Amino acid sequence: MSDGETHGTEAEVIFHISKKDRFPDWYGEICRVAELADIRYGVKGFTPFLPWSVMTMEVMFDILERVLQRKGHLPMLFPSVIPESNLTRETEHVQGFTPQVFWISEYGEGVKLEERLALRPTSETAIYPMYSLWIRSWRDLPLKRYQRCTVFRSEVKSTRPFLRGREFLWIESHNVFATHEEGLAQVKEDLETTKEVITEEYGIPVMVFKRTQWDKFPGGVNTYAADTLMPDGKVLQLPSTHDLGDNFARSFDVKYVNKDNETVYAFQTCYGPAISRIYGGMISVHGDDNGLRLPFKLAPYQVVIVPIFKGKNMNEIVQHCRAIESSLKEAGMRVYLDDRDATPGWKYNYWEMKGVPIRVEVGQREVKQGKVAVFRRDRMSRETVALEGLTKRVRALGSEIDHALRSEAEARFEGLVVDAESLGQVEDALDKGKIVRVPFCTSQMDGMSCGEEIKNKTGGEVRGTRIDVEEKPTGVCVVCGKVAQEFVYVARSY
Amino acid sequence: MSDGETHGTEAEVIFHISKKDRFPDWYGEICRVAELADIRYGVKGFTPFLPWSVMTMEVMFDILERVLQRKGHLPMLFPSVIPESNLTRETEHVQGFTPQVFWISEYGEGVKLEERLALRPTSETAIYPMYSLWIRSWRDLPLKRYQRCTVFRSEVKSTRPFLRGREFLWIESHNVFATHEEGLAQVKEDLETTKEVITEEYGIPVMVFKRTQWDKFPGGVNTYAADTLMPDGKVLQLPSTHDLGDNFARSFDVKYVNKDNETVYAFQTCYGPAISRIYGGMISVHGDDNGLRLPFKLAPYQVVIVPIFKGKNMNEIVQHCRAIESSLKEAGMRVYLDDRDATPGWKYNYWEMKGVPIRVEVGQREVKQGKVAVFRRDRMSRETVALEGLTKRVRALGSEIDHALRSEAEARFEGLVVDAESLGQVEDALDKGKIVRVPFCTSQMDGMSCGEEIKNKTGGEVRGTRIDVEEKPTGVCVVCGKVAQEFVYVARSY
Fold first, then answer.
1. List of domains in chain B
2. How many inter-chain contacts (A to B, CB under 8 Å) are there?
3. What residue ranges in B282-423 does DSSP mark as E strands?
4. Element containing residue B111 per DSSP (H, E)
C-alpha cells in the first residue's frame, strides 16, 4: 500500500501456516494478515473488503467483462430493490428465494412503504418485467445483457469472507432467445466462458456438472455448474448457468411476434459468476504455507521494486528504482516501488505474504553492474537479470508463473475421482478428499431421497452428472438398489 | 447496440426537440429514445440504467478512479447496510440523514433482525468505526481510501433519471489526517480533482462555492461544492467535498498516538462525486436539438462505421469496413461497425441521436478511391479523408470535438453572474437564467432566515460564497439590511 501501513517488526509479516493441514486457520489468518477483509464490521455475514482484495477483484471483473462483451453481452444496471409483487410471480422461484430475502418496509422515521421491497437476492424478477416491455418482435432477439452488482442473501450456513457472505459481488447475465435451442447454445457458451475465464485466465481448474433436479435453480429447467476443489478436499461451486426454458417467460409475459406473425413465448438463460466467491477460491487454490500467491494476470501489483541502501547512497538507488518503475509501467505492467521507511527484509516478507508474483531488488552493487535481482514468489527463487533485458524477462516470468500455478492446481485434480459401490466406500473416499463417482437411480426428482440419504450418511452432496462425457452405468443405485440410470458425483462442499 | 435493436422507419430515430425552450421534454425524451434509462420500473425513484448510459458511466468512473489512485487513494468496498446504532452516533449527521433512510427490519418469512439495518445513504457511519480500529499511530496516517458503489436516499423532491434518484451511483472518498491543515489540503486537492475530471475530462464547466452553514454536510465543519449550469438556467450540484474537522473522529473514536506519544483525535474529509448525476449533467450540457453529443473521451463507441451498399457489392464493402474497424481498434479506439439490416439513412439518424462523435461512411466509390467520408456529430459536418491518414485524422478530430464541446459549454458561463441589490432585481435576473451575486449579512447560521426569505420570494437558493476570489462587499444585506459581511451567489437549482 502507498500509505497508512504499519511498519512493525519482521515477525509481524512472516506468515507460516500449513494450508493443507490447517486450511480453515490458513484462510482466516491470510484474510486478516494480508488485509483482504475485516470481519469485525458487526453485522453477521457483511464484511468490508479491503484494497488488496478489491484491486484484484477489479482485475478479475475486467477480464470477465471483456469476454462477455466480446461475446455480444452489453452491460446494464438495475435497481437493488425489487417490489414484492414481482418476486412472487414465479412460484418455484419465490419459494426458493423467499427464506433468504431481506425486506425493506419503511423509511425515515417510521413511514411505511406501500409495498415491501426485497433487496435483490438475484435479479430475474427485477429484470424480466422490463424485458416483457422491451421485447416485441423476433428482430429484438437475441437479447444478451449483464449487470455487475452486489446481491443479498440471508444465508443460514455459517459465513466466511468471500466464500459465503450475505452481500456478495457478482455478474449476472440475462439472455433472451427465440428458441430453446438457442438458449441451450448460450448455456454451452457460458460453460466455455467459465473455462476460458476461470481456468485459463484465473488458473482455477473446474469440473462441470449438470445439477440434479432438486438442486437446480428455483424456477429453471436445468442448472449447469462448475466446481473446483478446495485445499481441505471440499468442492466450491463456481459459476452456474441456468436453462430457464420458457418458464420465466410465461410468468413474466416475455413474448415476441415471430416471422410467421404469431405471438409466442421467448426462451431465457441466466449465468451468475460470483467474483467475490471466485476470489476466495482463487486465493485458496493458489496460496501456499507462506501466504498468498497471486497470478501475474490478476495481481494488483505485478512487480514490486525494493531499494536496498545504507544511508548516503539512498538517493542514487531510489532514482535508479524510479527509472526501472517507469520502464515497466510503460510496458503496461502494474508496478509498485516500495520506498517506505522499513528494512528490505521486512518488505520481502510483507510482499511474499501478500503474494506479489515478482520482486525486483536493487542495491548498490546492482546499480554499478547494470543488473538487478529478480525474485519469483511462486517458487521463492531468485535470479540476476541485466537491466536492458528486464522488461522482457519480467513478462516471460509472468507467463511462467501463471502457467506454473495453473499446472500445480490441475495436478491436484488428477486421480481425484474414484469409484464407489457402497455408502461405506463413499465415506472412506470423501474422508480422503476425493470426489466419488457412484451408480445412482436418477437425478430426476425421484432420486431426491437417495441424495438425502447420501448426505446424511456420508456428509457428501450429489453434485450431478457429467455433461462432457457419455457415461452409462451397469450396476444398481448405491442407495436404493434400483437399476442405476446414471453415474453421479458426490463430494463434500462449501 | 450489437443486438436486440428494432430497426424501424427513419422517423422513429429522428430526434428534434429544442433543448433551450423545452428542456424538461428534451431530457425525458432523450432518456427514452436513446435508451439511457427506463422509468417504467414501478418503484418511485428507482430506474434501470441501460447499456448506452452504463457504458458511458463506466468510462467516466474509469477516468475518475485513475485520478484518485494517482493521488494516492486506494479502493475498498463496504457493505450496503449499516447497523442503526452506528448511524445514530453523530447527532447532526443522523438528524440530517434519518428522514431519507430506507430500513431493513426483517428477512425471510417475517424473521425480525435483532437490530434494524439502514441502506447506506452515505457511508461515514459504516466506515469510521472500522477506521477507529485500523488507525493506531501517526505512521498509519494519512489514510486515503474510496469506494465505488450505489447509495440510497428516499428523496422527497421529484425524481428524474440520473439527476435525482433514490438509488444512485457514486464514488465516496474517506480520508484521515493527523492535522486539520492536512485535511484542508485534501479539500483543496479534491477541488482540483473536480476541475481536472469534471471540466477538463468531461468538458463540464463549474463554479465552486463554500456552502452556507445551513446547507453544509450534516455533522461536518464546512462543505465546498461545484455547481454547473443546466440548459434551463438552473444550477446542478456536482461533486462536493467536506471538511469534517475532528467532529466524526470524536463520535467514532478515530484516534492515534502522535510522535510525542500522546493519543489525539484525527481529522477527516470526504468527497462524493455522484457519477450518475454527473452523467445527467453531462448529457444536458453537451446535447443539442438533435439529441446527444458525447465527448470523444467518454463515448462508448467513439467511431461508428456505416457501410453503404446495393446488393451485390455488399461483401466487398463490409470486408473493407472490417479492415478499417481493425485498424482503428488497434489504435486503441472504441469502434462499432454497424452492419445491421437497415438503410444507411436510418443508421445516420440513429447514431446522431445517440451522440456518437465520429461516423465513417464507406461506399463503393470510397472503396475504389481509397477514401472515406468522415462525419463529426458536434458540427454535423462531413469531410473526405484518405484511408492511409484515417487513424491520425480521427484522433485529431476527437480532440477537436472535445475541445469544441467544452468551449461551447464554457461560453454559456460568460456573463452568467450579475449583481443585484434588491429581491426584485434578484428575481428578474433568475428569470433570465442568471446566477445572482448579492451582498448578504452572513453565511453563518444567523443568516439562515435571510436565505429562506430569498428562497420564498424568488425561488433562488443561496449557493454560498466564492473561495477562488477574495470578495468584500460594501453594501447591506439584500434581505435584512444589516451590514453585509459577504457576497453570496443565488441561483435556482435542481
1. 19-286 (3.30.930.10), 303-403 (3.40.50.800), 417-491 (3.30.110.30)
2. 186
3. 303-307, 335-337, 358-362, 371-376, 381-386, 417-419
4. strand B111-119
Gap between the Cα atoms of A210 and A191, Å rounded: 11
Which residues lie below 8 Å from residue B146, measured CB to CB, with a gap of 6+? B65, B68, B73, B74, B75, B76, B171, B172, B173, B174, B271
Contacts of A253 (CB under 8 A, 6+ apart): A132
Report yes or no: A323 and A374 within 8 Å, Cβ to Cβ.
no
Cell numbers for B182: 492536512
Burial bucket for residue B3 (CB in 10 Å: 0-12, 13-18, 19+): middle
SS3 B65: helix
What is the ipTM, given to two decimal places?
0.95
Nearest to B108 among A41, A79, A101 (CB): A101
Contact between chains at A38 and B169 (C-beta distance less than 8 A):
no
pTM score of the predicted model? 0.96
- Going by their DSSP bridges, the two strands B435-440 and B417-419 should be labelled as parallel
H or E segment and range at residue B490: strand B486-491
Q: Coil, strand, or helix at residue B429?
A: helix
Q: What is the pLDDT of residues B377-433, one digit of tens each?
A: 999 999 999 999 999 999 999 999 999 999 999 999 888 999 999 999 999 999 999
Q: SS3 sequence, chain A?
A: CCCCCCCCCHHHHCCCCCCCCCHHHHHHHHHHHCCCECCCCCECCECCECHHHHHHHHHHHHHHHHHHHHCCCEECECCCEEEHHHHCCCHHHHHHHHHHCEEEEEECCCEEEEEEEEECCCCHHHHHHHHHHHCCEHHHCCEEEEEEEEEECCCCCCCECCCECCEEEEEEEEEEECCHHHHHHHHHHHHHHHHHHHHHHCCCCCEEEECCHHHCCCCCCEEEEEEEECCCCCEEEEEEEEEEECHHHHHHCCEEECCCCCEEECEEEEECCCHHHHHHHHHHHHCECCECCCCCCCCCCCEEEEECCCHHHHHHHHHHHHHHHHHHHHCCCCEEECCCCCCHHHHHHHHHHHCCCEEEEECHHHHHHCEEEEEECCCCEEEEEEHHHHHHHHHHHHHHHHHHHHHHHHHCCCCCEEECCCHHHHHHHHHCCCEEEEEECCCCHHHHHHHHHHHHHHCCEEEEEECCCCCCCCCECCCCCCECCEEEEEECEC
- Please give the residue that has the higher pLDDT: either B193 or A341: B193
* Strand ranges across the sheet with A371-376: A335-337, A303-307, A358-362, A371-376, A381-386
Q: Which residues of B touch A70 (CB under 8 A)?
A: none
C-alpha cell of residue B214: 445551513
Is B107 close to A101, i.e. CB distance below 8 A? yes
pLDDT at B289 over 50: yes
Alpha-carbon distance A306 to nearest alpha carbon in chain B (angstroms): 19
CA distance A362 to A369: 11
In DSSP terms, A104 is beta-bridged to A117, B104
Q: Is the pLDDT of residue A148 over 50?
A: yes
Q: Phi and psi dihedrals of A44, rounded to 5?
A: -50, 125
Shortest distance between the Cα of B78 and any Cα of chain A, in A, equals 4
- Distance from C-alpha of B323 to C-alpha of A118, rounded to nearest angstrom: 49
End-to-end CA, chain A:
32
Strand B111-119 vs strand B81-83: parallel, antiparallel, or unpaired? antiparallel
- Distance between CA atoms of residues B12 and A486, nearest Å: 55
pLDDT at A11: 54
pLDDT digits (tens, 9 = 90+) for B176-225: 999 999 999 999 999 999 999 999 999 999 999 999 999 999 999 999 99
For residue B166, the chain A residue with the least C-alpha distance is A79
